[in-house]
Amino acid sequence: MDRQFTVTQPNKVWTTDITYIRTKQGWLYLCVMLDLFSRRIVGWQTSHRIDRQLVCDTFNYAMARQGYPTGVMVHSDQGSQYFSRDFRALLLTNDCTQSMSRSLAQYTAHVGIMQ
């Protein structure tokens, strides 16, 4: 995305991330996709496993809810789930593109370590 966060119409840029929730049964992982234009959640899924299936299911749910838009750019961090072959193939099949944030190392390398 080259740090361009202004979006002029819906279903052009979605951002996604995974968080975790502690439950009595153990950890529950929540993956969310958010439309940058409307700032609304367009898809979500939960799982007891943090894996590529979680992000693929979330993407499929978001696509179905939004009427299968084409040309969506999906922006994420560099988590292994988003690098997976299955997720990247799913984006390609749906005429979507992938964007990933820079690694944290790129930012900290320029700042150095404060002692």
UniProtKB/TrEMBL annotation:
Domain Integrase catalytic: 6-115
SUPFAM superfamilies registered for this protein in UniProt: Ribonuclease H-like (SSF53098)
GO terms classed as biological process: DNA integration
Membrane-spanning intervals of the chain: none
MF terms (GO), sorted A to Z: nucleic acid binding
Name of this protein: Integrase core domain protein
Species of the source: Acinetobacter haemolyticus ATCC 19194
